[in-house]
Amino acid sequence: MTFSANARARKPPTLQPRRLSALTQLSFWLVVGSVLALSSAVFVAGVNPVRLSVVGIGFLLAASFTLWLFRRGFPHPTLGAGNLVTLARMALIVSLLAATSGGARPWLVVAVASVALALDGVDGWLARRDDRVSSFGETLDTEVDSAFTVILAASAMVAGTIGPVVLLLALPRYLFVGASWVWPWLKGSLPESLARKVICVVQVIALIALQVPGLIGVLTTPLVLVVSGALLWSFGRDVVWLWRHRA
């Protein structure tokens, strides 16, 4: 063996950079998310101690739920870009709690909500691309979407664009979940449905449009009734499917 070959043989292996654990990554990005939520709240409603406190408490609850969900089981060694997008959406949506106590700038609420809506679907695509699909990500995404509709509905009522009828757009999913505790077969897995996804997007678009006083005028109530009718059809179809395929 030559000297050069012997030197190559004794060359120490290249050290690979150590990856942070998924939990460490999650904790870090939750801290970043809290800053994003508070900054976005200031953007939407200005510096107001009461509103910022509401947003801070809201994000603390959201972060606690996220960590609880993570500890139930996360199968991947790293968090993945898809989950980071979901966390960013969560922060933006929580920041809109600042609009539920009045005094928010309607068009800025629309802007932040539109960004959060535009990111919906990106997280799922990234998770599939990076092979980071998990029940954690799916559940977190679902709960973030559900909270989005409730916060937007509350903001619309505070803005005075519509009354409690807007809850027809915010509560169907929670009524469905509540019913599943009475009838466990409602907890079954549903097949993918393009119609369900489209109706959910239309639901959020309608709620975003309701943020600006006078934007829709006399069409406000008919819009809510039409979209809530589509939601009722979607949930009704899912209930029938689950009933037919119950164990």
UniProtKB/TrEMBL annotation:
The keyword Transferase applies. GO terms for molecular function: phosphotransferase activity, for other substituted phosphate groups. The keyword Transmembrane applies. InterPro entries: CDP-OH_P_trans, CDP-OH_PTrfase_TM_dom, CDP_ALCOHOL_P_TRANSF_CS. The chain crosses the membrane at residues 20-44, 50-70, 82-101, 107-126, 147-174, 215-235. Keywords: Membrane, Transferase, Transmembrane, Transmembrane helix. One of its GO terms (cellular component) is membrane. GO terms for biological process: phospholipid biosynthetic process. It comes from the Bacteria. PROSITE patterns: CDP_ALCOHOL_P_TRANSF. Belongs to the CDP-alcohol phosphatidyltransferase class-I family. This is CDP-diacylglycerol--glycerol-3-phosphate 3-phosphatidyltransferase-like protein. It comes from Pontimonas salivibrio.
